[in-house]
Amino acid sequence: MPTVETVERLRACLLVLERTADVPRLDVEWLRLRCDDSLRAVGQMQQDSLRQLRKDVAQFVEEFPHLLPASLFDELNAWIAE
């Protein structure tokens, strides 16, 4: 399960990407909103949201493998593989 810090780092990276040219902005914005949802949830709702976010991140990384910074990409891949 990812830590809140991992989700916050992902969210911060996605915010930067939203302002970058030549990126799939709607996909980036959607994943950032998913991060926001997971960060706002509490208790079991947060755990459920993080499990779904893991699937969403896996799909995003599969579709756009070179979009995220390498350090974050490696951390997310470790999380996805759990």
In short:
The chain has helices at residues 4-18, 25-40, 43-63, 70-81. By secondary structure, the protein is mainly alpha-helical.
Mean of all residue-level pLDDT scores:
88
Shape: globular
Instruction: Give the helix tally.
Output: 4
Radius of gyration, in Å, reads 12 Å
Query: What are the segments in which pLDDT stays under 50 over at least 5 consecutive residues?
Result: none
Content-based structural category? mainly alpha
Strand content: under 5%
Distance between the termini: 7 Å
Order of helices and strands: HHHH
Record field, number of beta strands: 0
Q: Roughly what percent helix?
A: over 70%
Could you describe the largest sheet, including whether it forms a barrel? none
How would you describe this structure to a colleague?
The structure is a single chain. This protein has helices at residues 4-18, 25-40, 43-63, 70-81. The chain is mainly α and 82 residues long.
Helix-strand blueprint:
Blueprint: H1 4-18, H2 25-40, H3 43-63, H4 70-81
Helix pairs in contact: 1-2, 2-3, 3-4
